[in-house]
Every structure is written in structure tokens, then in C-alpha cells.
Automatic annotation (TrEMBL):
Keywords: Exonuclease, Hydrolase, Nuclease. It comes from Monodelphis domestica (Gray short-tailed opossum). InterPro entries: 5_3_exoribonuclease, Xrn1_helical, Xrn1_N. It holds the Pfam family XRN_M. Transmembrane segments: none annotated. This is 5'-3' exoribonuclease 1. Residues 272-444 form the Xrn1 helical domain.
Amino acid sequence: MGVPKFYRWISERYPCLSEVVKEHQIPEFDNLYLDMNGIIHQCSHPNDDDVHFRISDDKIFTDIFHYLEVLFRIIKPRKVFFMAVDGVAPRAKMNQQRGRRFRAAKEAEDKIKKALEKGEILPSEARFDSNCITPGTEFMARLHEHLKYFVNMKISSDKSWQGVTIYLSGHETPGEGEHKIMEFIRSEKGKPDHDPNIRHCLYGLDADLIMLGLTSHESHFSLLREEVRFGGKKTQRVCAPEETTFHLLHLSLMREYIDYEFSALKDKISFKYDIERIIDDWILMGFLVGNDFIPHLPHLHINHDALPLLYRTYMTVLPELGGYINENGHLNLPRFEKYLIKLSDFDREHFSEVFVDLKWFESKVGNKYLNEAAGIAAEEAKNYKQKKRLVGQENSMCLAALDKTKEEVMTSKSVIEDEPEDDDLFETEFRQYKRTYYMTKMGVEIVSEVPLMVS
């Protein structure tokens, strides 16, 4: 699961988290876990833009085995080496994968078509189809058999692999690779002879591994990944691991950063300050900025400082909640509702700023309503109120005529006050803006007035 821009934000806000892996300067690790699909993709199609690139299955298998050897040699696990290949994914992930695969096939077809139009001569061999990296395909079945042979060969011929417990969770075991790894860690942690000082190292490319590693609540946990360069032109991925710069991201230090970030709460809350519960709530807040499956809340973008806003709101509202939002994996809905109500203040303030700019722009282009749907709704609301006001005035005049008193006429007129048109338009625009978000982001076909009236 990807969280767009999350890894970059973490790296820039906490620059000391990550260190470059240097030979003979690697911390000792007991367990090494590999999310294998990143390695498989990198070794099978390192450059999708090159339509001339061809590679055989045997070459792919050889490159994968070499990558495994290099990672094992870098980390040197002392107890456990766990390799996890993605199995059958949950339904939400399946829908995402289906879209990715159709898109990948279409893009590959378009690139080949453009190359032929330019007169380029393409190799006669079939191009590797990355869609075969799917549980249940012949390619994955052959890869699994080759991996088993490779592991047996290394155990029998390489002394560094001997004495280490090796696990291979293949494509036939359901679940994504990183989740199978976390399930293994939780099962080991539940054993009575578990050592709390076990040092874990997890290799993977997804940003959500930071959150998964923190949910383990293990004191010594690090992430291993290739160097990521932000900005600039996109470069070709390097397949050879010897040419790759690896980074270690220390989640143990991340825990200390989070503790420091929320340390001001220690003197404000009436209940016990628990860093483990703070971390659980920190992870929960991370979902509000969206990921591969959940849309972000309105205006909450990581590159627009959404995360600091979430943290400030949390520090403001937590002393009033009487406890943490995430209670050992169970969401406390009343507390979460109070948090979202406080967070909604920002949504209204932000839209108010946008509304001022919108009205200025409308005055320049001569269009009364840039938002057509909101404009129609505003006109209908305005006409309804005018009609209601006229009816009220007629009734008041009738009552005044019956009573023959001027004072009552003035009183009845003063009861009916005109509401400012701008306020009506702002509320209508704000409701329409929320309706559009629910319909486009959340996929809600019919939005009732109840959620729109909540500010």
C-alpha cells in the first residue's frame, strides 16, 4: 500500500532517521524480512520505457537470486531470514491491481505502436509481461520452485546461511508480502519465550512499511530500502545491487521523534501518558491524508502541511477526550468524532479563504457563479426566501389592517429581516462543495442534507 509523498515528508521532517548503508558499519540484526515483489519487479522489468529490452525467465531468476545474496550479505541476519512473496490479495487490493494491469498493458501497447511508427526495428522475442507477476501464474509457480532450490543450495554450500532459520512464504499463501511478515512477527511476539530485544530489519519499497513497523511496537526495528531521490528528472532504475545505494531507516529513532513531538501532552492530559498508544493514534491520523485505498480528507494534502495540522489538532483535543482514540486496535468512535469536529474548523476556514478569492474572480470574469451547481442551488434558495418573505409581508399587512394599528404593522415588518445574500451564497457553496467531495471521492451517489449541514 502506497502513501503518496509520505516517505519524502518523513525524510525531510526527521532527517536523522535514515543513514546510508556502508560496508562493515552495519548494525547487527537478528531477523531479516524481505518483501519479495519489489525485487521481482526490479529484476524482471527495470526499464519499462525501453521497448527494445528483452529478458529470459532464467536471467530473471538468476538476478533475483543474486539480489537475495547481496541483501543477505549486507545485513547478515543471525537468527531468521524470512522471504515473503505476495499471495492472493484482499478484494480492495484486487480492484487496484486489476486497474494497474490494464493500464500497464495499454501503456506497453502504445509504446510499441509509437516505436513502430518511428520505423524502429524491435526484437523478434516476446517482451516480458509484468502482469504475470500475479499469484497463480505459471511464471510465479516456476519462480517458487527455483527459490526452493536456491535456498536448499545455499544452506548446503554457504556457511553463513547455516544456523539461520529460513522461511519462504510463496504466492500460494494468501496475503500481501508485508502483511505476512507482520503476521509472523506478531506470532513470534506472542510466544512465552519471546525476546523483546530482537533486532528486526525489513526490506521493502512501500511507505506504509513505516506504519506497519511501528504497529509491531518492537523497540529495535529498521527498514532497508534503495535510495530515493526527490525532484529532478526520473532516472532509470539500477538493477545490479552492487550499484545501488541502500538506506537504513531506524524506526526506534522514529519512536523517539514521535515521543518528542507529543511530549507537551504529558502535563495536559488527566490519564496516563503512554507512547505506545500515542503511536497508535499517530498511525490512525496518517490514514486521514489518504493512501492507495482511502481518499484524503478535503484540503488535507501531505505537501500542504496536512500532517502537522493533524498533530496540532490532536494535541488540542486529546486532553478533553478522557482517553486515546485507538484503544488497542479498537476505534473509539465518540472520541474520534470529537477529533473530526475540531478538525472540521480548518475545513471551513480554508473554504472561507477560497470563497473570497472565488468571489473576486467572479467579479472579474463577469460570471456570478463559477460553480454552476452551487449557483443554481443559491438562486433557488434565494427565490424561496423572497417568496417566503413576500408571503409573510402579505400576512402581516392583513393582520395590521384588521387591528388598525400602525405599531403592529411596524412590529410585524421588523420580525421579517433580510438575511445577507453573501452569507446565503457562502453556505450554499460550502454545502455544494461538500456534496461534490462525497460524490467524486467517496463514490456516494445521493448525498442527503444531514452531513451537509454539519460544519
